[in-house]
Design brief:
CATH superfamily of the largest domain: paralog of FGE (formylglycine-generating enzyme)
Strand order of the largest sheet: 8-7-16-15-13-17
CATH architecture of the largest domain: Alpha-Beta Complex
Number of helices: 8
Number of domains: 2
Oligomer: single chain
Structural class: alpha+beta
């Protein structure tokens, strides 16, 4: 599917939006934010909350440009300006032990990004090439399972109603629940990049870099599949015409990694933190090995790693060297996410990679 098609899908499927003007009880935040349209500092608090982002406007005309046909998607793509996250609510701080519950330690090490990799530009992965280079990954923790509907509902119900997505709606008592009760342990889907990043912030974690995801999948020895070199079958991964449809997380214990991470191949794809740039992935820096690469400093498209259960999936779709990209506003039924956390918070930044803002410039007035 083309980028234009994904963009159209994103516009159609974004969550219900709200327009707000600060008044009365809350102190003004004027001067701290920037108009998405023209890049100038705002003098008021006129903004749109939608699809996991808060989008400021300096005047009614700019707000109309942002809201009409979800025009902010085109503005973000064209200008390179990164939107703010809708502020995250959290009823209480987590201890380190609570934050690490359900996570698996990846000890870190070195891997080689091979000379041949696959890029999914349509339905069929296409081969691409570059010079192999070494990458060193610091120790980190990764979620043992993909984030589930049950997990995501806890986030939404903690004062983050604007992040409701994926068919999650309030029940009779106002509590947000999965679309179906039996989906509680299914990986949440229909989350765009910003929804995923918002959940990660709430959980005291972040999205994995592409390099971390690769290393969790293949390790230092670059396993072809998370479990090793044996070809996938119905006991190891949910993919292709034999199965179809999502399965609860952890349904394929034979497909887990040696560390015990489930479903890195099959079931659902997963957002990564990096901007997407094929040339960045091809070219190593002067330093060798490259240490904890964070991805390009700017861009529009975001990386996701595919482990899709769709009917057309083949064994190639489960390889560690398959790269995919999409607009960050894409809300697809075959893409979810999991989170990571540094194993050494003092030595490795917890800042979400790829969250750097492009320079602000005026292009409207």
């Amino acid at each position: 599917m083309t980028n234009r098609s994904w963009r159209t899908l994103a516009v159609v499927s974004v969550a219900a939006w709200s327009i707000s003007v600060a008044s009365g009880g809350e102190p003004s935040t004027a001067g701290r934010h920037v108009c998405l349209v023209d890049g100038n500092r705002v003098e008021g608090d006129l903004y749109l909350d939608d699809a996991g982002v808060r989008l400021y406007a300096c005047c009614a005309e700019c707000l109309e440009k942002i809201t009409k046909d979800a025009g902010y998607v085109r503005l973000i793509e064209q200008t390179g300006r990164q939107p703010e996250q809708i502020p995250i609510n959290r009823s209480g701080e987590r201890t380190e032990r609570e934050a690490l519950e359900g996570m698996v330690l990846i000890a870190g090490g070195e891997m080689t990004r091979p000379g041949r990799f696959l890029v999914r530009r349509g339905r069929t992965p296409e081969p691409a090439e570059h010079e192999p280079f070494r990458v060193r990954i610091s120790p980190f923790y990764i979620d043992q399972y993909e984030v589930t509907y049950e997990d995501y509902c806890k986030f939404v119900n903690d004062g983050n109603e604007k992040y409701a997505t994926g068919g999650i709606t309030p029940s009779d008592d106002g509590t947000f629940v999965p679309p179906r009760g039996e989906w509680a342990r299914f990986p949440v889907r229909g989350t765009n990049f910003y929804h995923a990043r918002g959940y990660a912030e709430w959980a005291g974690k972040r999205l994995p870099t592409e390099a971390q995801w690769e290393f969790a999948h293949g390790g230092s020895d670059r396993r072809l599949y998370p479990w090793g070199s044996e070809e996938p079958d119905e006991t190891r991964a949910n993919f292709g015409p034999a199965l179809g449809g999502l399965k609860p997380v952890g349904s394929f214990p034979k497909g887990r990694t040696p560390e015990g991470v489930f479903d890195l191949a099959g079931n659902i794809g997963e957002w990564c933190a990096d901007f997407y740039d094929e040339e960045y992935y091809r070219k190593p820096s002067a330093e060798s090995p490259v240490v904890d690469p964070q991805g390009p400093e700017s861009g529009f498209l975001r990386v996701y790693r595919l482990g899709c259960q769709c009917q057309t999936a083949t064994a190639k779709d489960l390889h560690a060297n398959l790269r995919c990209s999409a607009t960050p506003f894409r809300q697809a039924g075959c893409v979810g996410f999991r989170c990571v956390r540094s194993a050494n918070p003092e030595g490795v930044s917890q800042q979400s990679p790829g969250s750097r803002s492009a320079p602000w410039v005026s292009n409207c007035r």
